[in-house]
Amino acid sequence: MIPEITIHNTINFPKLGLGTWEMGGRSKPDYSKDDVWLKAISFALESGIRHLDTAAIYGGGHSEELIGKVIKTYDRSQLCITTKVSGDKLRYDEVIRSAEQSLKNLGTNYIDLFLIHWPDATVPLSETMKAFNRLLNEKAILHFGLSNFPVPLIREVMQLTDRPILTNQIEYNVFTRNKGSYNTGMEREIIPFCHENGISITAWRPVMKGDVTLPGHATLAAVGEKYGLSSFQVALNWLCSKPLMMAIPKMSSEQHIRQNIEALSVNMDAEDYDLLDRLGN
Questions:
Q1: Model confidence over 28-47: pLDDT tens digits?
Q2: What is the rounded CA–CA span in Å between residue 173 and residue 204?
Q3: In angstroms, rounded to a whole number, what is the distance separating the alpha carbons of residues 32 and 25?
């Protein structure tokens, strides 16, 4: 059973989801490994993972199509599907078209969580949110959120809708705390502001893309030895121990799926969480 968080006191989402970046291609469709990806998605669902995270740009929509093929045989009401409109498609009509295409690709009549993938300073957020509010009112999307948004823009979005922001998806892990690829001050500013307003955090790149060369990795390995966990299981456990925190690692094999689920089943000692809190930038 994947543990869950409760957002805005009413909405439950699993702490662990399946990230699908590069499943089905990068920015263009790649059909060469479809059997591998379909098997991975199916095994994740069979193993109890209910949250599937994708985006319009992943494989040019093919990632969504792969998810759509798998979920046909599952109870849709038990799944949480997140997808995103690209940050270069934030005009009103573009948002509507993107949502419609994602619905078609996924083969479903609603999206659980629809995100703005990244902000675009050239498009007024008021125009983007007008489209989001329409999609919410029509129940094409049940909830909405943001991705890679700094505090000033989160504040602006809050003024443009009466619907709660469910999550802000940012790069965050045990080593990446305040200086990421798209945001800074994640731990100093973004996460505290989101928590003050009941907004969850979804961490992308939660296990550092499996990089064992990062400074501090030896500390993870030492803590892991104590609990019979790998260093990456320790990193994921630490992350998911945080309040209002979700993680969406890419899991392309049965082994990785099992390991990530197992990682959340261990309660480490407070002193070890404190030690890990002191790592990172």
A1: 999 999 999 999 999 999 99
A2: 8
A3: 9
